[in-house]
Write a structure and sequence with these properties.
Number of strands: 10
Helix content: 25-40%
CATH topology: Rossmann fold
CATH architecture: 3-Layer(aba) Sandwich
Structural class: alpha/beta
CATH superfamily: Vaccinia Virus protein VP39
Number of domains: 1
Distance between the termini: 36 Å
Number of helices: 8
CATH class: Alpha Beta
Shape: globular
Length: about 270
């Protein structure tokens, strides 16, 4: 679920990411009751709903009934995040918009110093790991979060304010899809901004990162960490077949992190 502000501020015909002008592309029925216009930015080519006034109604839960892929997505994100962390030698990780904290727990199970924050969800699986023991994360994760931002122009400020070395996220990019695109998910009313490649590039330039797109994943990374061989290894590691194998290996491995965290937390409780 998003960590975004629930009060959009941009003007109706102004792109909420880059400030460009927009034009209406189509309309859909959101939450089965609101006739909502979708606008495309003429500058960054991103798609967005009209100013979303229905968000309090849409967020009765951090997961919608249609999000049947949540469990499998956490396992896939574990494999991808673990690969990025190890290849770049990043250990301090923050899951921004981490929902119930399951990904954080899985990362910790496999030895990554991961914490989870989400203003609008209870971190059931990571209740003891919501206050990082580092000032700036090496790697900031943010999976299926950006499309929830009502005000990307300002909401992204909160994300990049952590000054991570890299940001690893997922969101499906918009490329002239029509009103039947499944990712619009109008029944839920939660997906309200859809980034184009140009929109993602705009974000990278604004915050001083280089950006690489790996199929469903997007990596913003500081220049000093994106040497040629790092990028070659990441490209190989994030391929579908490699990810499936790594996902299987991680699921089969019990990991030592759960026991280590248990012992540490127990010692604190028993002091």
């Amino acid at each position: 679920m998003s960590l975004a502000s629930k009060t959009p501020t941009k003007e109706p015909n102004c792109c909420r990411l880059c400030g460009g002008n927009t034009r209406e592309e189509f309309r859909l029925l959101l939450l089965n009751k609101y006739n909502i216009a979708y606008h495309k930015c003429v500058d960054c080519a991103s798609l967005q709903t009209e100013v979303p006034y229905w968000l309090n109604e849409a967020y009765t839960s951090n997961l919608t009934q249609l999000d049947t892929g949540a469990a499998q997505r956490n396992l896939s994100n574990l494999a991808a995040s673990f690969a990025v962390s190890k290849l770049l030698k990043f250990n301090n990780v923050l899951d921004y918009g981490g929902g119930d904290g399951l990904l954080c727990r899985l990362m910790r199970d496999h030895g990554i110093n991961c914490y989870s924050i989400d203003k609008y969800a209870r971190p059931t699986y990571a209740a003891a790991f919501t206050k990082p023991n580092f000032e700036h994360p090496d790697l900031l994760l943010s999976f299926e979060v950006l499309e929830h931002f009502p005000n990307p122009l300002t909401d992204l400020e909160d994300l990049f304010a952590f000054h991570p070395k890299a940001v690893f996220l997922s969101t499906l990019l918009y490329s002239e899809e029509g009103p039947d695109w499944w990712y619009l998910a109008p029944e839920t009313g939660q997906h309200i901004f859809f980034y184009s490649v140009a929109g993602i590039s705009h974000i990278a330039e604004k915050y001083g990162y280089r950006v690489f797109i790996f199929d469903m994943y997007i990596l913003f990374i500081k220049s000093e960490f994106c040497g040629y061989w790092n990028m070659v290894r990441l490209k190989l590691a994030l391929r579908g077949k490699v990810q499936k194998l790594l996902k299987l290996l991680l699921c089969m491995s019990p990991g030592s992190g759960a026991k280590a965290d248990f012992d540490e937390l127990r010692s604190v409780i028993n002091k």
